[in-house]
Design goal:
By secondary structure, the protein is of the alpha/beta class. Helix content is 36%, strand content 20%. The protein has a single domain (2-214), classed as Rossmann fold (3-Layer(aba) Sandwich). The protein has helices at residues 5-20, 23-28, 50-58, 71-79, 119-131, 152-173, 184-189, and strands at residues 40-44, 63-68, 89-93, 107-111, 138-144, 192-199, 205-212. The protein binds S-adenosylmethionine.
Length: 223
């Protein structure tokens, strides 16, 4: 479904800087300090690799696995990796739904990823995270949200911004989603709870850390 991301890969960075300046990258890095001692990190739908580049700098020991469906996005990500780090980054050009590994990761990052999907797709995809995490793993998610509260002017501006983004991504990549599904209830069904949360002051973007309570949600043996 998302091979349409190949088409926008060359402009993705420019588009982001034009609309958001450095704010989205700041949000991706909200909890970067939590990853400095994690040894095995999974990045899902990493796009052009802005975060990967930063992560490799702040954590010189971590092994990183990237799961990314778009070849063009992944190529840009790969180009950001310094030659001396090649040995500790593994790229899988595959949809998350088809990714198959046996290991558990110390941390999983999903940035502006779940907003590409409709609720029925998310219901099928979120259980996959259980397979790659345990009670010690962190799942860091940064994404847009549909604003429900606040001043009318802020609500209108955030509403318009998100509609424009969905309009663009629907045309350019073919995604079916038209609004941001709140993933927290689905995460809870899969045993994950929010342990920290931070909102951007300017944009409808939120960074959250989820952790899994073993014994709740889908048991590891079933995924
Ligand atoms: C909106 S972009 C976000 C990119 C990046 N994480 C960021 O922070 O800007 C969504 C990314 O997810 C990738 N993607 C979409 N569907 C996917 C799937 N099913 N499995 C893996 N990657 C996918 C797209 O190719 C794209 O790179």
């Amino acid at each position: 479904m998302c091979s349409g991301f190949d088409r926008i890969a060359p402009f993705y960075g420019v588009f982001e800087s034009f609309l958001f300046g450095s704010r989205l990258q700041e949000m991706r890095c909200t909890y970067l300090d939590q990853l400095t001692h994690r040894r095995d990190i999974l990045l899902i739908g990493e796009g052009t690799g802005l975060f990967l580049e930063r992560l490799l700098k702040v954590n010189p020991k971590t092994k990183v696995t990237v799961v990314e469906q778009s070849a063009e996005m992944m190529e840009r990500s790969r180009n950001r990796v310094d030659a001396r780090d090649f040995g500790r980054v593994t790229f899988h050009r595959v949809a998350l739904q088809e990714f198959d590994a046996v290991e558990r990761f110390d941390a999983v990052c999903t940035f502006f990823f779940w907003d590409c999907f409709e609720k029925s797709q998310l219901q099928a995809m979120l259980p996959i995270l259980s397979k790659y995490t345990d009670g010690e793993s962190l799942w860091i998610d940064v994404d847009f949200f549909e604003i429900q509260e606040g001043a009318l002017i802020t609500k209108c501006w955030h509403f318009m911004l998100i509609r424009v983004l969905y309009g663009f991504f629907a045309l350019a990549t073919g995604i079916q989603a038209r609004y941001v599904v709140e993933i927290e209830p689905l995460a809870r069904q899969n045993g994950f709870s929010v342990i920290e949360s931070h909102r951007s002051e300017k944009f409808p973007v939120r960074a959250r850390i989820f952790k899994r309570e073993i014994g709740r949600g889908v048991p590891n043996s079933l995924v």
